[in-house]
Amino acid sequence: MLGLPDEQNENSDTITNNNSHNINIDGQFTAEKSFDHVFFPTAYEDRTSSLLFRQICSYVQNKCLPSKKCGISYIKLLFPFLSWLKAYKLTWLPNDIVCGITVAIMQIPQGMGYALLAHLPAITGLYVSFFSSLIYALFGTSRHLSMGAIAVISLMTGNVVNRLTVKETLTTMVPSLLNKSTIESASNGAIIDPSYAITIATTLAFTVGIVQLLLSIFHLGFVTSFLSDTFVSGYTCGTAILVFTSQVPDIFGLSLKRYVGPFNVIYTYIEIFSNLKKTNIITLLVSACSIIALVLAKEYLDPFYKKKIKKFKLFKNVQIPIPMELIIIIIGTLVSYLLDLNGNYKVKIVNTIGRGFRKPQGPSVTLMPTLMKDAVIIAIVTFAICMSLAKTYAKKFKYIVNSNQELTAYGACNIIGSFFASFPSAASLSRTSVYVNAGGRTQMASLVACSFLLIIILRIGSLFESLPKACLASIIVVALKGLLLQMKDFYTIGRVTKLEAVVWLMTFLSTVILDVDYGLFVGIIVSLFVVILRQFRPRTTILGQYDRSNAYKKARRFSNAFEIPHVKIFRFESAIIYFNADFFRESLLDSIGIDLKTGQQRKNNPQESNDMCLSFRSITHIIIDCSSINQIDYSGGKIFIQALKELNGCQYKVYLCQLRYYNYDVLQKLQMDKECSVIVTATLHDAVHDIQDDLRENHNNKLLLANTEL
Q: Structure pTM?
């Protein structure tokens, strides 16, 4: 029975149920059967096609037929260094010099190590560091990115070089696991033509650059939006495992077979454990000393050292790390040369490094079709890694990076560098962090680093020919610490959302087990599947009035949010499109106890309590909160109207509140007003207010009828 209080304020009406829950409605309300009576629309016309055509014409005019003024702006956009160079202050120069030298010191061992990871001569890593830093300083919009060789891209390049240089041998291994498939294998000591390996790597770099320029020209930088932070974390962590695995033979001084393709990491570890007895003790000793020295320096000496130098005014706001990597390669080279570790103890060394630059050489056109798939993958991964770093530091230091110009810069780095024996480059997280901590203000620091690297390439590089490979492998392994620690992200993400944790785990496992290219595809597919799953089965909510206010919350979530008597408020928290429209209809009808097969109110169900059955029968009004429905397509609109017709058929009065104008246009074009009876309100509170008046009128009519009969 519906009870009305004896006294009511002018601005407040109250309805009380048996549970003594009052429904307070204050203020004006708007409820009409037509959307146009709720709001007063302008003469809106959807001119999307004409606007798109106008934008295309404007773009062609500005890009292809630039005016003199537009041409000057275009030059400034293409060469961002003109902007920061014009505003450059001499007071920034000391910081940039210190930062440039510090970064260059890091690039020497990392560049050489990552070149070996890519199965290329060590000198090519220095070429990558030099050309990519120089070109990015001219074309890039980030002030802090440190371009050069990085572990992930070097590994992907190494896989391509390995696949195309190693002679394929059909070796069937573990038929039950691989289903009688074959993998490519070759001895780690196999002779690979360095010139051909460089040709493959430079052609790959050129193709990657072309892909990035095409992405820039057609403004397709948004493709990285499909690479979520969860995916990138799982992918880079999985790649770090592969990089670590590739360095284990050099740490133990083993000559092993190389495996290419799915399950290669499994067979690599089988090969490692099978040959552990052949470990070169001297190589292992060199590796152990290098790793211990690096860990002690980074974990203990470096913090103490930075704390001490802060006492000096010059280093108060600058953090310069101990150049332990450079110290390791200098000491390693001296010890190897003096004791002739290669001749006496068969310790693998870098061998020929050379001096100076190679003659410019173009890419191999015949290889480009073969490398296209790998180039697209590397181009997208490079852009995702670089842009995430660039945006992070741009936000921190309050400046803007242009994603389209960044693609141009990355493409220029790879295309120009490819003519000078450079493999694909990207921004390094560790070097960029040092770049910032060392006080770098602009890309002038990169130009300083290039000057330092130029001296190394022209004069000093050949002195490192006696450097043990174990030293470089140790440097790479220790540098992987940050990437390997991303395993903690799986636990952190899992606490927030289980589906995202599945994305991380699937990406990680597929990268480690199936290899980097398959890992990329699997990760993207799983990420998209999770997005589609969330849209396919979105959340539905039954709302109640929250604490006697005009706010409405999930009734089951809050103890002081009560469902309104005779009213069911239903909210669908997603767009209604073709693949989830049936779920919307089923959820809506099920929430008020309508049988989906018969379209009638369900009879007593043993699985439902008596109170629930009575609650279903007492419902007379349905409110559909459309605030979370940001799109309704043709199929979704048809099923939406069908659901409304079924509600009308069961004698329910239906309200639509907070319906967006473009969704209303779709429903009107599908003749919603003719097909069914609905009332459109501006807000949810207005709908409840109108229902209150309707219930009061019905109650008064019943009282009047009862008095008449008496």
A: 0.80
